[in-house]
């Protein structure tokens, strides 16, 4: 008798995904999925991505979390040229979990967005869908996940003129969103504004400083922390070009000098 026929890759992936939902087989299934992701040939990448992108309302937390983690593993394990064409599909797969309330799933989504930003052939390929989610999601969990994911993608993207050109018209829309009441996950949005402002020119970044300064003076501890980090990032990236804003920012920092932030 000859050797047993090799199990088709998609069938093997689906079997492992199913086993993620069982505590007794979760670790073994996760390790096998990681090994599959790392050992794929270039022509198998789309099939694997499709298999791990399926979502069902009955999916348990380990499956939801690890299916997102596999997106990051896929990007890390293969050449950028092989992964770059798949970035839009990868981001779409991640955003299917954007309303998930579980913090571990959210963290895996953010990691997947970071990986997509690093592998993206152009700024819109990764950031376009993420920015749309930030601008249009009404659910607070979705707003939080989308803003954190978009910030991670911006930070991971190569600092090119293409990135700056994409962010320049987006930044005013983010600032308008921050000033409004519809977006509830303000600290995450502030982090995104900080990342986007740092990746643009000093003139655009200067438009963000008043909003960040106001957030620093506000009552929300998490928003104050995010604003302080964003202002520090702008000072690092743009330095003397934002010198005109230095006195007003220092005054707010002085007023908050006993703040635990």
Poorly predicted parts: none
- The CATH class label of the largest domain is Mainly Alpha
CATH architecture of the largest domain: Alpha Horseshoe
Helix content: over 70%
Proportion of residues in extended strands: under 5%
Shape, per Cα inertia axes: elongated
- Radius of gyration over C-alpha positions, nearest whole angstrom: 21 Å
Spatial gap, N to C terminus: 70 Å
Order of helices and strands: HHHHHHHHHHHHHH
Can you tell me the number of structural domains? 2
- Overall structural class, as computed from helix and strand content, comes to mainly alpha
Major beta sheet summary: none
| Mean of all residue-level pLDDT scores | 90
CATH fold title of the largest domain: Leucine-rich Repeat Variant
Helices, by number, come to 14
Give the beta-strand count: 0
Summarize the structure.
The protein has 261 residues and is mainly α.
Structure characteristics:
single chain, 261 residues, mainly alpha, Leucine-rich Repeat Variant, elongated, ARM-type_fold, TORTIFOLIA1/SINE1-2, microtubule binding, TORTIFOLIA1/SINE1-2_N
List the helices and strands and how they pair.
Blueprint: H1 9-19, H2 26-38, H3 45-53, H4 61-77, H5 80-83, H6 87-95, H7 103-119, H8 123-136, H9 140-156, H10 161-179, H11 186-198, H12 202-216, H13 221-238, H14 246-255
Helix pairs in contact: 1-2, 1-3, 2-4, 3-4, 3-6, 4-7, 6-7, 6-8, 7-9, 8-9, 8-10, 9-11, 10-11, 10-12, 11-12, 11-13, 12-13
């Amino acid at each position: 008798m000859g050797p047993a026929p090799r199990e088709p890759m998609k069938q093997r992936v689906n079997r492992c995904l199913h086993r993620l939902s069982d505590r007794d087989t979760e670790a073994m299934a996760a390790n096998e999925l990681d090994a599959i992701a790392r050992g794929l040939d270039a022509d198998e990448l789309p099939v694997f991505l499709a298999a791990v992108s399926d979502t069902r309302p009955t999916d348990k937390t380990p499956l939801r979390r690890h299916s997102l983690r596999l997106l990051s593993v896929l990007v890390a394990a293969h050449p950028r040229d092989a992964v770059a064409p798949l970035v839009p599909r990868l981001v779409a797969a991640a955003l299917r979990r954007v309303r998930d309330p579980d913090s571990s799933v959210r963290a895996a989504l953010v990691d997947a967005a970071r990986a997509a930003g690093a592998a993206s052939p152009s700024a819109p390929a990764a950031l376009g869908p993420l920015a749309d989610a930030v601008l249009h999601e009404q659910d607070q969990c979705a707003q939080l996940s989308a803003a954190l994911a978009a910030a991670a993608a911006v930070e991971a993207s190569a600092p090119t003129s293409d990135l700056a050109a994409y962010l320049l018209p987006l930044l005013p829309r983010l600032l308008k969103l921050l000033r409004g009441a519809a977006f509830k996950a303000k600290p995450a949005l502030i982090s995104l504004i900080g990342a986007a402002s740092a990746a643009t020119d000093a003139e655009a970044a200067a438009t963000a400083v008043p909003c960040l300064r106001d957030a620093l003076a506000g009552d929300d501890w998490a928003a104050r922390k995010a604003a302080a980090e964003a202002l520090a990032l702008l000072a690092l990236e743009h330095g003397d070009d934002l010198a005109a804003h230095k006195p007003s920012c220092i005054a707010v920092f002085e007023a908050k000098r006993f703040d635990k932030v």
